[in-house]
Specification:
about 350 residues; mainly alpha
């Protein structure tokens, strides 16, 4: 019952945001803006977004390296399917990426999910830093024209997000350093009471702490940070090109600022790649910079399609090619629950 209420609440929130986004627009004007957009820049932006799939796969390979050697081809296929599923069914699609890789490489789901969790830490850190620092790089002329109370609220939110991020990273480093006694406590006190339930959890904690070794290893930390910077650099470049396709002469600070708004909106796990929530937040960020609401909405719609459409088509190709089934995914999870082996791979 609790899950149903949560799902209904998310759908209601997404519906309200979508209604707010749609109801205040002149759709004839929005259509005119969409017809005037230049196509070639959008094609280039789409290619850059698909290139992020490759870079994400390389980063995932680095996260998995301490526990298992995984081929880049399967990583790329799983990453494409996972991000394509985000567009089709929302955040629930995130389960497909680690599950598909576990099927291809015969890895324990606890290992692949743990590395995805670490990836989320990196991407969350990137989003927070982008959003909290983007105000600094906005041109003073744009800042001067805004309500001081609203700007102060944004600065406060950015500061709190940064503090929360640093605190979270500190806790993860502490978990890494204190991993052995924590796992021993779970093994001796908790696991005997519910082995089928806690076995996968203990494996997850074990693989998570192994993966968190990147935070204390200079070489691995530098490599994974490099890949993260490259991923978000490509995303920023794709957004910049998309804005240019509409004839906007934005600087780096403006691009990052509006991207930050959209990313905060995308945290709402509505279907269609946070549809409604993303559009409302991204359009609001553009309006904050002085754009007409109809033009802001047009850009938000196209930027969302650029961000999720190309990975969806790529993921659909791999989904058909590999003939994946829900039965195979369920079998992988059943194996994890039944055995709960401490090692990352079967063989």
């Amino acid at each position: 019952m609790g899950k149903k209420i949560k799902s209904l609440a998310i759908l209601l929130l997404g519906g309200l945001l979508a209604w707010w986004f749609v109801s205040r627009l002149d759709w004839a004007t929005v259509g005119a803006h969409l017809r005037e957009v230049r196509i070639w820049p959008l094609i280039i932006a789409s290619l850059l977004i698909n290139l992020t799939m490759l870079v994400r796969s390389l980063r995932w390979q680095a996260f998995l390296a301490p526990s298992a050697h995984v081929g880049l081809r399967n990583l790329f296929a799983a990453t494409s399917i996972g991000f394509g599923a985000l567009f089709a069914i929302g955040r629930a699609g995130e389960i497909l990426r680690p599950a598909v890789l576990s099927m291809h490489e015969r890895l324990r789901p606890s290992l692949t999910f743990a590395t995805i969790f670490i990836e989320r830490i990196y991407d969350t850190a990137a989003v927070v830093l982008l959003f909290s620092t983007s105000i600094i790089f906005l041109p003073p002329s744009l800042m001067a024209g805004q309500d001081s109370g609203r700007l102060e609220l944004l600065r406060t939110i950015g500061t709190l997000l940064t503090i929360g991020l640093l605190a979270g990273i500190g806790l993860l480093i502490l978990l890494r350093l204190r991993a052995r006694p924590i796992i021993q406590l779970l093994e001796t006190r908790a696991r005997p009471r519910a082995p089928r339930l806690l076995g996968p959890l203990i494996n997850f904690v074990r693989h998570l702490t192994e993966g968190l070794g990147v935070l204390t290893n200079r070489r691995e930390l530098a490599l994974t940070i490099f890949y993260t910077v490259l991923v978000w650099g490509l995303i920023i470049a794709a957004s910049w090109i998309t804005f240019d396709a509409f004839g906007l002469d934005f600087g780096p600070g403006q691009v990052v600022f509006t991207l930050g708004f959209g990313l905060v909106g995308s945290l709402v796990p509505t279907p269609g790649g946070s549809a409604g929530a993303y559009h409302a937040a991204a359009a609001r960020g553009l309006e904050f910079l002085g754009l007409d609401p109809n033009l802001a909405a047009s850009i938000a719609i196209i930027n969302h399609l650029i961000g999720f459409g190309p990975p969806f088509l790529l993921g659909l190709y791999f989904l058909v090619r590999d003939d994946l089934s829900l039965a195979g995914i369920r079998e992988i999870f059943a194996s994890e629950a039944a055995h709960g082996a401490p090692n990352g791979a079967d063989g």
